[in-house]
Amino acid sequence: MTLSFTKMHGLGNDFVVIDGRQNDPALDTATIRHLCDRRFGIGCDQLVLLTAPTLAGADVHVRFFNPDGSEAGACGNASRCMAKFVGGAPTLQTAAGLLPTAQDGDLFTVDMGKPRLDWQDVPLSKACDTLHLPLHDAAACSMGNPHATLFGDASRAETLGPALERDPLFPERANIGFAQILSPTHMRLRVWERGAGLTLACGSGACAAVVNAVRRGLTERTCTVTMDGGDLRITWREDGHVLMTGPAVTVFHGTTA
């Protein structure tokens, strides 16, 4: 099957974008894995498939797939890229709900919605205080996908991330963030993403880290999050919505063989 695609990235978190709004290619798991493979395919942290929207108020339906073929409910960096790809400040229909977007010059903002803080909504496999999990004292929430944040040394991502992603406490696995608080308005973050491993940036992980830091009284509600690929500005508004602002870059367009 020949496919046209666009390669994009948000702070080095890179994506293969397939526009299926006119003709949905109905990609299977094997094809997704092949396209995401950096040696035998195009290579990316996630594949993004656009199709026609099915909900009122949405401009496009966006689905996110990990390199292992599993589907993610949300992806912040890819959502900013889709705001640029579609243009005109679109509202994205995702598994996490409708995500409004905005543009200011080279920066794109996505309203990632309200975090879910109850243990059933993360989800966890048993009732826990999501602010202090019995697992490295992590804090957990859902930003449309499950996140746990460990505070302290961000360099632990490679050593602890793989096992924590698959810990029995997370029945759907989890994205594991390692946050170092630099000031009340600045943190350093690295994220081990479920199904993808360590990435240069994770937008939903940055949102989750700020939400969890605010809940613990570690930062203010607006915070710069510095990741390996660059900075995002995250604001957890008083109405509960989390706004994520950062760049989106188109790398190249291509066609598969």
Automatic annotation (TrEMBL):
<dbReference type="InterPro" id="IPR001653">
    <property type="entry name" value="DAP_epimerase_DapF"/>
</dbReference>
<keyword id="KW-0413">Isomerase</keyword>
<comment type="subunit">
    <text>Homodimer.</text>
</comment>
<comment type="pathway">
    <text>Amino-acid biosynthesis; L-lysine biosynthesis via DAP pathway; DL-2,6-diaminopimelate from LL-2,6-diaminopimelate: step 1/1.</text>
</comment>
<feature type="site" description="Could be important to modulate the pK values of the two catalytic cysteine residues">
    <location>
        <position position="193"/>
    </location>
</feature>
<feature type="active site" description="Proton donor">
    <location>
        <position position="75"/>
    </location>
</feature>
<feature type="active site" description="Proton acceptor">
    <location>
        <position position="202"/>
    </location>
</feature>
<feature type="binding site">
    <location>
        <position position="66"/>
    </location>
    <ligand>
        <name>substrate</name>
    </ligand>
</feature>
<comment type="similarity">
    <text>Belongs to the diaminopimelate epimerase family.</text>
</comment>
<comment type="function">
    <text>Catalyzes the stereoinversion of LL-2,6-diaminopimelate (L,L-DAP) to meso-diaminopimelate (meso-DAP), a precursor of L-lysine and an essential component of the bacterial peptidoglycan.</text>
</comment>
<feature type="active site">
    <location>
        <position position="75"/>
    </location>
</feature>
<feature type="binding site">
    <location>
        <position position="46"/>
    </location>
    <ligand>
        <name>substrate</name>
    </ligand>
</feature>
<dbReference type="Pfam" id="PF01678">
    <property type="entry name" value="DAP_epimerase"/>
</dbReference>
<keyword id="KW-0457">Lysine biosynthesis</keyword>
<feature type="binding site">
    <location>
        <begin position="203"/>
        <end position="204"/>
    </location>
    <ligand>
        <name>substrate</name>
    </ligand>
</feature>
<feature type="site" description="Could be important to modulate the pK values of the two catalytic cysteine residues">
    <location>
        <position position="147"/>
    </location>
</feature>
<feature type="binding site">
    <location>
        <position position="145"/>
    </location>
    <ligand>
        <name>substrate</name>
    </ligand>
</feature>
<protein>
    <recommendedName>
        <fullName>Diaminopimelate epimerase</fullName>
        <ecNumber>5.1.1.7</ecNumber>
    </recommendedName>
</protein>
<dbReference type="GO" id="GO:0008837">
    <property type="term" value="F:diaminopimelate epimerase activity"/>
</dbReference>
<feature type="binding site">
    <location>
        <begin position="193"/>
        <end position="194"/>
    </location>
    <ligand>
        <name>substrate</name>
    </ligand>
</feature>
<feature type="binding site">
    <location>
        <position position="175"/>
    </location>
    <ligand>
        <name>substrate</name>
    </ligand>
</feature>
<feature type="binding site">
    <location>
        <position position="13"/>
    </location>
    <ligand>
        <name>substrate</name>
    </ligand>
</feature>
<keyword id="KW-0963">Cytoplasm</keyword>
<keyword id="KW-0028">Amino-acid biosynthesis</keyword>
<feature type="binding site">
    <location>
        <begin position="76"/>
        <end position="77"/>
    </location>
    <ligand>
        <name>substrate</name>
    </ligand>
</feature>
<dbReference type="InterPro" id="IPR018510">
    <property type="entry name" value="DAP_epimerase_AS"/>
</dbReference>
